[in-house]
Amino acid sequence: MICAKSEGIVMVRRKTAxxxxxxxxxxxxxxxxxxxxxxxxxxxMFEKVGMSGRQVSFDAPVADIDVRYPFHSASVKSGRWELCxxxxxxxxxxxxxxxxxxxxxxxxxxxxxRVRSVRPIEDAPSGAGPIEARPAQPETVSAPQVAKGAxxxxxxxxxxxxxxxxxxxxxxxxLRGHQAYFFKTPMLDxxxxxxxxxxxxxxxxxxxxxxxxxxxSDVVSNGRRVVGDLLCAGAP
Length: 236
Fold this sequence. Notes:
Belongs to the beta/gamma-crystallin family. With 236 residues, this protein is of the alpha+beta class. It has two domains: 42-151, Sandwich (Gamma-B Crystallin, domain 1); 169-233. Helix content is 17%, strand content 31%. The protein contains three helices and 15 strands. The protein has a five-stranded antiparallel β-sheet. A three-stranded antiparallel β-sheet has the order 5-4-7, with no helix packed on it. Strands 11-15-14 form a three-stranded antiparallel β-sheet. Strand 12 (187-188) and strand 13 form a beta hairpin. The protein is elongated, with a radius of gyration of 25 Å.
């Protein structure tokens, strides 16, 4: 039933008015709620931290982002979105809702990681979520790759579970030299590096601009043995 006001009706009995009010208000609420739900999902990704620099807007899934620069911050304008560090919505993923803003994606996903695929949550298969646990505070630079969208007008850092981020300073002083760099709990594509994965550790150093691993030690995190300290050295 549709509630309408007629110019010909000047007075309505109180009972009738109360009945109309009780019936029409819920109907109006349903129509309003439905209108809100119809708003398409929109995600805006930025070239620089703090939602600044060039930007790209997304309103549909993109399995292989193809933009010339990496994104360093993001803002969800409507809907709910999944941002992942690998193509086809794999790797470490962030689940963001309307109004959420990520000032530094590298702080959330890792210094060497970058967002490579995005999609509205409703487009994800049932039960899908981050394929790898979302790191609390990852670490270190990005090897640029990027998203299909309309460009307008984002570099940042990161942090890690149980450890500070990127290049680390300690009681012994700043652990960085002219041709060497120390990393605590390094992360690659948003995930900690397995202690026995030498290739991944070397890839981390290479992405940071160094030629080799000078020193490496392991730690146990959540029952898993991972690289805890990594010293990369050698000019690129």
